[in-house]
Amino acid sequence: MGVPGSVPATVRRRLVTLLIDGVAALVLGGGLLVGGLAGQWRPDGTLGPPTAVTLVGAVVLLLFAITQWALLGTTGRTVGGLLTSQRVVDQDSAGPIGLRRALLRCLVVLLSCVVPVLGPVLLVSSSAWDPRRRRRAWHDRIAGTVVLDLVVGLDPRTARSGAVAATTAGLLTTPEERRLLRPARAALPGRAAEPAGQPAPSPAQPGERTPPLPAAFCLTFRVPVRAGTTEYPEFPTSFMLFLTT
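Below the sequence we write its predicted structure tokens.
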């Protein structure tokens, strides 16, 4: 996925994004274009000359399509993607897909509109049949992209590194993992690096109170196996609360 912690968007959330983009296109020019074409329709089944409403609707819809294309190629987000917190990225590097692949992706979506409503819905729903289980729809496989859900997963554009991103998401659960992460945290802007050659702190002696961890503390919950017994098995995971120091 490019960045550990990224999560592909589900079919349901992608359908919501498709609906928002469709409504936005209808409001921003699409409605005027359809209304203008309906007004040009003659009883003999031919179209009359374009009216001002038709021309305005076509121009506004074209500007909206260009904006959507530019946003998708540079930021990976359309109007629907902004509202649903989804981003289209390269399937390997998790970087921007560029204008060329964004255009290819948009053309496939436009081609699916030959069958109104059902075509785009079937296209987006094809992400459920990805053989690599990355929820890539047909236009994603053609363009080499994947759609990420930024609500439940990490955003590759804001994740500084895999280790620091894991800290933000609370994925590090052992003291050893946190110890290995300290050099990465010290390299963040605004954090002074520890002086080289500084001796490691001595281990706590018996009876000596251990100071709290500077970056996080852990709460381990223990529940008896049976009521009225004193058997308390340790759970394999702990709930971690990370604090910025």
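Strands lie at 86-90, 145-149, 216-219, 239-242.
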